[in-house]
C-alpha cells in the first residue's frame, strides 16, 4: 500500500501555533487577514480549525531568515 502523504503532514491547533510563533491569537488572525500568515483549514464541523505544520514551520523559518539577512 502506498503512503497517501509522501511527507508526513500534520496539523496544529491554535495553542501550538501560538507557542511556536510567539504570537497571541488575535495577532495570528490579524496577520491572516492581511495575507501574512498561513490560513487554517477546517478539521471538523464549522468551527474547529488547525494549521498545516509545514506551513507554520515555513513561516517561522522565513522570519528567522529575514532576521539573519539584516
Automatic annotation (TrEMBL):
InterPro entries recorded: AlpA, Prophage_regulatory_activator
State the source organism's domain of life.
Bacteria
Q: Name one Pfam family in it.
A: Phage_AlpA
Q: Which PANTHER family match?
A: DNA-BINDING TRANSCRIPTIONAL ACTIVATOR ALPA
Put simply, this protein is called Phage transcriptional regulator, AlpA
Q: Which organism is it from?
A: Rhodoferax ferrireducens
